Amino acid sequence: MATQKPGEWANSLLARFEDQLPNKSARMSQDQLVGCLIHISRYRFSLVISGLTKMLQRVNNEAVQSRHEPDRCYFESTVIILTTLERCLTNQTKDTARFEEAMNVKLLLREITQFIDVQNDNTPNAAQLKSLASKVLFALSQNHFPAVFNRISARIQELAACSDENPDCTDIELIQHIDMDMAKLTKLLQETITKFRSKRAPPLILLNSIEKAIWNWIEYHPQEFQDLQRGLSRDISTGLSTCWEPLLDFIETYKAENKKSKTTVWPLQMLLLILNPASLEVTVNELQQGEKEKEKLSTKIQSRDKDFSAKQFVESVKRGLGPHSPSKQVTESAAITCVKLCKASTYVNISDSNNAIFKLVQYVINDLKSLLFNPVKPFSRGQGYNFADVELMIDCWVSCFRINPHNIEALKVCLNLNSPQAYHFVIVCSLLRLAHIYVDFRLQNKNPFRIVNQPHLPWWPQTEVVHYRSSELRALFTDTLNKATQGYIAHTPLRMITSLTLKTKDTQKGLTRSEEVLAHKMLLLLLVRLIHADPTLLLNTQGKVAHEVQSSTLELINGLVSLVHQPSMPDVAQEAMEALLALHAAEKIEIWNPEAPINTFWDVSSQVLFSISQKLIQHQIANYTDVLKWLREILICRNTFLQRHKDYAHVGSQIAICKQAHIKLEVVFFMYLWSVDLDAVLTSLSCFGLLCEEAEICCGSDELTVAMLVPNYMIYQELSQLSAGIEFSTMHFIKFPAASDFRVCFYDSSHGNALNRLNLQKRIMQLLRKIEHCVHGVQPAWEETFRNWEIMSKMLQTYPKCKTDDGQAEIFHRGVGKRRASHQSSEHDLEEQISEWANMTWFLLTLGGVCLLKRRQQTATAQIPQHPNLSTLGSTQANINNYAIQQKINSLTCQIIPQAHIQVACQGSIGSLGQTSLYSFSSSSSSGRGSLHPNSASSTTLAQGPQQEVQYCPVTQFIGQLLRLLVCNNEKIGLNIQKNVKELVGEEMSTYLYPILFEQIRAIVEKFFNQQGQVNVTDINTQFIEHTIYIMKSILDPKPTKDASIEQPSTSENLGVTSIEGI
């Protein structure tokens, strides 16, 4: 269809894209759809742009009309559409239909303008939409500048003809967001000059927009600016020379008409001076040589109006920086002007030291730094300019660093822990900007970071210059971490941080606690992002001995780990994961402790894995699937590092924390096999393979074998291969999925894509039943799952009245980021709880056998003597009916046979079985022995043999509680639970558990008879018997599986030594 009818296919894809928006339904494969649209837009640009534009219109209209829906859905939908538009425009080719394309661009431009021309962009949502719309407009202007320029030109014409004091300046701000090369800039300037010639001065918003347009040209086309400064391009000089004087006339006219605010145009005036290298050089010489040489030098250029003097202008700016400034407004304007001057100078090659712009910078830079970086008297324009002040100092610090990276006065001020907190923001944001990461403080409850793809000039210094300050940066991180985490208010929404101000410490004492904590949290987010962007910046430990280096690394990494499971700061947690992943790059691990990299690696990295695994086991991380995927990447990085040192990779791995971390990892990967999130299951499966890979690397040439490190090596490899196969098959249906949610009970075939998931589930159960070694994380995973299963079972049985005491009525494996929209029914939550309970049930049934095997083997080794081997028993039916063999089994009652498979000796009658059951346990109600009711205690006390001790067995307890659920009488979900129990017990139980199952059934059925042997016929008893018959039939006569690759559980070995005659 894509080849024969591309238009219809594109429309179909657009419709599917819209259906997946948050205001429509839960999203599943948004990234795949976006990728398809971007690819199609290269060939059907107009069609895709038109569809996305109409989609944007519909979302905006629905957001206005639908008041009952949450605004978040429409906001997120708008963000997705704008992001997709920007990516399509960026990847646009030149061979599109011109007329149709121009019409679509006009429609799109009209929609984008509403996000640019906002009256107040201080709200985070408006600021983020404006930022995205700006990117769309920038990409649009690169290939469709005429359409954008015509809209701007029309508005300039209206402004020139309007005599109102407050004219309509809509669309003028578009100038600030478009791509400007020299030709486009010259065209815009000439258009402005033509429209306003012989008239009043342009309004301030137009002058400010022109200034921003010049900056866009400098930043995105620095080579043209460089050529202008060096006089290499006559075309550039000629084009700007025709605009220079008229623009200066505009400035002078504006200053004459607005004397109180005349300094607001100083930054533009300084830019125009820089754009005229000849005038700039004369001005600098005048400043250097004094008034005596003024007349001689001024003859080199055409004389200007007598009211204008570049020298006087620069002197006024310099005077505004000093203590004798005429007014606060002059000081503020002078600071802004000089920062812009310093910033412009960084776009000139530093090797061209004789350039006049550097001489002008040296004329003002000392006064500028004294004004901006004075902790005793901080620079501030007032409460409403907090972020603007910080951004101004960031521009100044970055510019000063690029001009002279070894000048550290400002760096010392910013790193001093006693300086006002805003200086800490300045140094962190400045270092981020050196990595091309800009911080937008208006987006505090969003992602405030944006990557700016501006050209990186070769003469700009790298951050390696400040690596010797690593200890001070680590101290700042530790201090901020302590303040942010100790005083952070849970679930406090981020808002504009009013405490981010250039106040002294004494002044800041009056701030509220919540304001301080929000500022600490924001600074912490920036510091973690800095570690992510440049990990080595905080790892430099020159001059320290080995143990101090390792201690510093451990402190830094442990601090990041503590943030990963910080529920109140999800944005910081995500950045902390990225930072830890960056620190685990092989080349970064090398510098954790250069003198002992392997030993330090095992110690530090194991602590990371242990801590995160513990939180995952306890379900204390909401976005568990993301953390699991991150954990997989960490393991990949670890193996990459170990492969580099494979000859001695095991050195240092014998310490306790390494072994504990390995056990915890296995527990995590086992437990998340019963998650309702398919991504979590697949991730866990793949991680088993990484554990095997690590073992292979660590074996090396020593006597160690893979089986010694990972006893269940072969099973883990097969589990990992399952993940690879399913992930590959998923790639084929994920583009056009039939279901809108991956969260599913694998055993329930009523969900979409049930066949793939059911097959995966069957294969996992088959492999878990094959596990022979109950070592490392196998038994802890079973026991922790059983604890969760008990909580969930209690909640489901009493639904909807009961909630668990520990507040875990919520589904265990549920991520906050994957919740459905609030308008959807809570019925789905109940379905997920039942699904997860069913998943836990099959996990306990399949893995319970090997856990029981370990317990019985331990008991046999400690207490029971050896006995003859009964492995020669015959087939299932022959053994059940063979009296002679039964007699032999009777002689071994209450004794355990320590073989590879546990075999249970039971008496041939119900009564004797009740007296001599091997699996004796406490008569407490928790075991469920002989009772179908959760709170009823067994009325029969079992007689114990002389050598037999009463022991607690969680596997036995689990089987007893599970059988009671066969008669769960919950009105809403009882039938569902009964169905799951009988099918799972009958079809998926480990054969090692059959003896326990039969003994438990016997104990329960025994209570159906009175003392005279008469049956007590009740609905509950009848229901239990019916379900028991189904279970026994499933065990004795299993249904053949349709998938030949899935092996059926073998029942002969355990049924052969188990008496079921009494049942």
List the helices and strands and how they pair.
Elements: H1 6-19, H2 30-41, H3 45-65, H4 71-90, H5 98-116, H6 124-143, H7 145-161, H8 182-196, H9 204-220, H10 222-230, H11 234-257, H12 266-274, H13 277-289, H14 294-298, H15 310-321, H16 328-345, H17 356-372, H18 386-403, H19 409-415, H20 421-434, E1 437-439, E2 449-451, H21 470-486, H22 505-508, H23 513-533, H24 546-564, H25 570-583, H26 586-589, H27 597-617, H28 624-644, H29 656-671, H30 678-699, H31 706-709, H32 713-733, H33 754-770, H34 778-797, H35 827-863, H36 876-881, H37 883-890, H38 910-916, H39 954-964, H40 974-988, H41 994-1006, H42 1019-1036, H43 1052-1055
Antiparallel strand pairs: 1-2
Strand neighbour order, sheet with most strands: 1-2
Question: What's the CATH architecture name of the domain at 1-179?
Answer: Alpha Horseshoe
Shape: elongated
Average pLDDT taken over every residue = 78
Number of helices: 43
Secondary structure: helix percent: 55-70%
Number of strands: 2
Instruction: State the name of the first-level CATH class of the domain at 1-179.
Output: Mainly Alpha
Question: Pairing-aware structural class of the strands and helices?
Answer: mainly alpha
> Into which percentage range does the β-strand content fall?
under 5%
Organism: Glossina palpalis gambiensis
Region (Disordered): 1041-1063
Protein name: Neurofibromin
InterPro entries: Ras_GTPase
